């Protein structure tokens, strides 16, 4: 097989993506659909899910609050029935969580961030791994962490804590599932352009008592390439990790961030 052909995901991959009606998740879903994969996406927002279904009628969709274990189990069962199995699990769902000093963080906000960002990944893994063990199509788990999963992030401790934990979960599973020929990797996006990042910048600017424009400049100064990344940049890495070219790539936390130097 020619080298460039190795970069193409295996035809007909069955892909499940959580939190995928907007943002990075939607970009990943669109990339796999364009590559000929069968894709199931879930999201908490029924309006966004409906819009995704309208854009991509071939895409299977479901609505779920990923912080609820029973809802995760339900959408995984639906995906298995509709796809006939799962070859690639993309654990993407997550929230920004509160922006505050640790002593000012509400317990409910902390718990919601952990339930959504970290515990949901466990719930999806628990129900998807048995299906991944049955496939012979380059089985892969891709966990979406964050550059905050390798750096400290003041005033964003709930978010950073979950993203560090995702990397630990990934590295442990790469060892556990390697003998089953299942690869496990994490993508660590940096500062991603879009409405969500605009909201994060505004909240942090308010916490620090500066303008949003000044806060945005501060973010860019911390990036070696002096630019934000796009959701499509992250999607391209996900496609690579699901391709034959990455058949020996596992246990890796791969940053797509322009080299964020500090947060």
UniProtKB/TrEMBL annotation:
Keywords: Oxidoreductase. PANTHER family: DEHYDROGENASES, SHORT CHAIN (PTHR24321), OXIDOREDUCTASE UCPA (PTHR24321:SF15). SUPFAM superfamilies: NAD(P)-binding Rossmann-fold domains (SSF51735). InterPro entries: NAD(P)-bd_dom_sf, Sc_DH/Rdtase_CS, SDR_fam. It comes from Herbaspirillum frisingense. The keyword Oxidoreductase applies. NCBIfam families: PRK12826.1-2. GO terms for molecular function: oxidoreductase activity. The keyword Translocase does not apply. Belongs to the short-chain dehydrogenases/reductases (SDR) family. PROSITE patterns: ADH_SHORT (PS00061). This is D-beta-hydroxybutyrate dehydrogenase. It holds the Pfam family adh_short_C2.
């Amino acid at each position: 097989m020619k080298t460039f052909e190795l970069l193409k995901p295996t035809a007909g991959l069955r892909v499940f993506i959580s939190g995928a009606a907007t943002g990075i998740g939607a970009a990943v879903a669109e990339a796999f659909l364009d590559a000929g994969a069968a894709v199931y996406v879930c999201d908490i927002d029924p309006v966004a899910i409906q819009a995704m279904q309208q854009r991509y009628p071939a895409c299977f969709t479901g609505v779920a609050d990923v912080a609820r274990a029973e809802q995760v189990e339900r959408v995984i069962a639906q995906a298995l029935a509709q796809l006939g199995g799962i070859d690639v699990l993309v654990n993407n769902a997550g929230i920004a969580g509160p922006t505050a000093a640790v002593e000012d963080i509400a317990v409910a906000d902390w718990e919601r961030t952990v339930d959504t960002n970290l515990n949901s990944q466990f719930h999806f893994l628990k129900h998807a791994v048995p299906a991944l063990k049955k496939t012979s199509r380059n089985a892969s788990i891709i966990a979406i962490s964050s550059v905050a999963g390798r750096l400290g992030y003041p005033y964003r401790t709930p978010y950073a804590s979950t993203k560090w934990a995702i990397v630990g979960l990934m590295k442990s599973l790469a060892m556990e599932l390697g003998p089953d020929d299942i690869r496990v990797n994490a993508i660590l996006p940096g500062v991603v352009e879009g409405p969500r990042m605009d909201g994060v910048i505004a909240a942090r600017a308010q916490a620090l008592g500066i303008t949003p424009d000044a806060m945005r400049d501060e973010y860019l100064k911390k990036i070696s390439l002096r630019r934000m990344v796009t959701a499509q940049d992250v999607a391209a890495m996900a496609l690579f990790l699901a391709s034959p070219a990455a058949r020996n790539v596992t246990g890796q936390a791969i940053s797509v961030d322009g080299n964020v130097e500090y947060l």
